[in-house]
Amino acid sequence: MAAFLSAGLGVLATSEPYTLTSSSWEPRLDSPFPSDPPTGAQVVAEPGKQGPKNPRVSSVTVQLEMKALWEEFNQLGTEMIVTKAGRRMFPTFQVKILGMDTLADYALLMDFVPLDDKRYRSGGRPGEAAGTAGGGARKSTPTCTLGYAFHSSAWLVAGRADPATPGRVHFHPDSPAKGAQWMRQIVSFDKLKLTNNLLDDNGHIILNSMHRYQPRFHVVFVDPRKDSERYAQENFKSFVFTETQFTAVTAYQNHRITQLKIASNPFAKGFRESDSDSWTVPPRALLSIPTRSHSG
Amino acid sequence: MAAFLSAGLGVLATSEPYTLTSSSWEPRLDSPFPSDPPTGAQVVAEPGKQGPKNPRVSSVTVQLEMKALWEEFNQLGTEMIVTKAGRRMFPTFQVKILGMDTLADYALLMDFVPLDDKRYRSGGRPGEAAGTAGGGARKSTPTCTLGYAFHSSAWLVAGRADPATPGRVHFHPDSPAKGAQWMRQIVSFDKLKLTNNLLDDNGHIILNSMHRYQPRFHVVFVDPRKDSERYAQENFKSFVFTETQFTAVTAYQNHRITQLKIASNPFAKGFRESDSDSWTVPPRALLSIPTRSHSG
DNA sequence: AGTTTGTCACCTAGGTGGCAAAGT
DNA sequence: ACTTTGCCACCTAGGTGACAAACT
């Protein structure tokens, strides 16, 4: 299926750690990680300088759904489980799209870029978190080990990142489709799964456990011209929502992340306490995840 | 989504009762309905004269999956439940496709045409089935009320067909896709649902209960030419498998149909008797229904 | 009397985190 | 000591025919 786009994908560099390309920022206090850019500042991501763009994509605007929930997770340091068989993300990455050419064909896809070149570990005891890290190449000073309880204590830099995994992308299953179709309702990436299996042959996204990642969202205009490869650079637009960054883990490290997942993910309802009034998330966070269908 | 094809759909006439356009046939004894053409004779349907065709579709060949199971149902007189919310078909219509241009785009769709202009009812007592039908406009003589037990007794003609329902079509959700993708594995129409709700707004197939229908399968080459509407007639090819014809019902009329559904549909396992050895269907009939996915 | 509707118990299919055990 | 794996109970989500009640 993805053959129609393969040429255009070369333009998405996925190997180097992601850095914000636009706007300045100041250190924030609510992140458990050093040197984090601020989040939640923009409703619609500013993709920064990407060169001249086809108006078919330059006018496209994207809105992150469940933004409040993402921010709630991000303040604790979002973790996403990776398994051999592949695990969905929660929250699910969902967007509302505006500004497409209703009659043009677009493909939507996601990929994940490393947020830094570090490997983390969940070690030590509270108090010695900042000082006793192993043979790490830690450069920046960890500014905060805030008031949340880790499974053991805190995130420590454990060294340089493991070799980069194959930089896979995930096409939304409905790709390609007309702009009108994409804009009709919320687009949900609920089929996307994360795995730590380097040999995965199910097409899942391969990530290294204990590493941090930034999801990216790409809108690609399917150029009908025969020499469309020549225009690949102008025919896509990328969006980054910093509040969706996360640490890949094989088991949750921060117990408050676990509790928030249980409180907000319908599939984890079995682990909720009987009284369902003590949620920290608003009820709308529990609304069912919209899906898109072609058959209508 | 279907906009790219709407012009081409006009060529599919769905209003008049379907009749076999090719080959001769003789009366058969295993059908509970009068004047039924033979079934199961051809592995691949012969669509008959459809005018000159684009080689992109003329070389396409289609093989019905679960053929043995379809025939088993057809010998009893297949019934399909229709509900207000929409009900899936069982068996599911599934095909294996050969002969497509691997690089060309195709859309696959189904529609349903009336098999005759009659309305049926499930009336009378055994023995008086053939003679005492109500004020029907019955023209042909019912030849067989074979050795199976109806809920009451037999299918009687109850009069002329109700006004034809809106002739909806169901696009396979993966449409459009490359020939290579369609041929990679079995294509399953398991998202298709039948309804008796004339006001249905879920895009389901609308049928009249107590009427007989012939499912049809259409392969449409998505012509990249700007004036593709001009070539609509040559760009599609239709296939009919007579063993898939059925009567739409709101509740099963033939108890042997019910039992065969229970025996062969995994979702009806709850109604099976404890010993699972007394099936009349081969174990392969119970294999899971393959689905196709774009995300790989 | 025949047909349709809505509810139900019982399934399939698959997404949760917990947890013990294994791995490193 | 920390991380990963496999299995589990418990969910969501939705596909079955049975059945009683309603409809016509």
UniProtKB/TrEMBL annotation, chains A, B:
- What keywords is this UniProt entry annotated with? DNA-binding, Nucleus, Transcription, Transcription regulation
**Residue span, T-box domain:** 64-273
User: What start-end ranges are recorded for coiled-coil regions in this protein?
Assistant: none
In which compartments does the protein localize? Answer: Nucleus
Q: Where is this region: Disordered?
A: 23-57
Protein name in UniProt: T-box transcription factor TBX10
The species this protein belongs to is Acinonyx jubatus (Cheetah)
In terms of the parent sequence, the fragment covers: 1 to 296 of 406
